[in-house]
Amino acid sequence: MVLQVLDSVTISNFPSGVRYFFDKARFYISKQNPDPAGYGGDVGSYINTQEKIQEAINKIQLAYESALKAEKYESMGYTRDAINMWIKIFGDYFPAYG
Description:
Blueprint: H1 2-6, H2 14-28, H3 50-75, H4 79-90
């Protein structure tokens, strides 16, 4: 899905790139997502009911809204608040501040 969303897109900075991805990913959740390795099939085939699709869209919507807040906080100079929003999105994968 990331390959589809970011095809021919220039990312000027990581925060806007992440926000852009979540914005567009809401649309792609219900679409077929071809195997990027080229082996065939839909790598998102497990999201196969309307309930699962809606749950995924809701999670992506929440991530999108958090990314918007993180960008806003960063632009206002509230770095700690921005980092907290990124942690809400990425959890332990996002480096914490010390």
